[in-house]
């Protein structure tokens, strides 16, 4: 089954206008709309709306009222994230990329590329606490690649671009990078 978790009155109003009727269960903050079928779970698919299904749970609050209907495509479509039409162009800044001089234990550009791609993904997938996620990601990249000299400005630029696409300012990116370098003694 799939549960559309409506957390507030605005979400309930939206659901009543948009989604097909099904079994509903009142909650302390809103309602659960229960559909027959499974799908990917996702939080915050729109303001006040979560989808609870595969690998997720919703607390049992009773059988509810109404007839359970099949999971409609409109609910499945809620978890599909479309890229923004025109993301703001990231500003390029110059920050020290490396302490350098150390021997690179990675020996292969593929290792570095995979690490940078994973870091970009971690930043891109952040749904909350973006600044903290950016800082922790910068710290992880610098701890792995900051001393050996393999990290280049182009890699830093990619990380900054990912952070800026999530709403971080250039100043916040620079501060997070500097703070991570300082913490690691670079």
Plain-language structure description:
The chain has 186 residues and is α+β, with helices and mostly antiparallel strands. Helix content is 40%, strand content 14%. Strands 1, 2, 3, 4, 5 and 6 form a six-stranded mixed sheet that branches. A hairpin with a 4-residue loop joins strand 2 and strand 3 (31-36). The N and C termini lie far apart (51 Å). This is DNA primase. It comes from Streptomyces fulvorobeus.
TL;DR of this structure?
This protein is α+β, with helices and mostly antiparallel strands and 186 residues long.
What's the N-to-C terminus distance? 51 Å
The sequence of SSEs as H and E is EHEEEEEHHHHH
Count of runs of 4 or more consecutive helical residues? 6
Helices and strands: which structural class? alpha+beta
Q: How many discrete structural domains? A: 2
Oligomer: single chain
Protein name: DNA primase
Topology:
Blueprint (H helix, E strand, L loop, with lengths): L1 E5 L2 H10 L4 E4 L4 E6 L5 E5 L2 E4 L16 E2 L2 H4 L32 H16 L5 H16 L7 H13 L4 H15 L2
Parallel strand pairs: 3-6
Antiparallel strand pairs: 1-3, 1-5, 2-3, 4-5
Descriptive keywords:
186 residues; alpha+beta; 2 domains; DNA primase
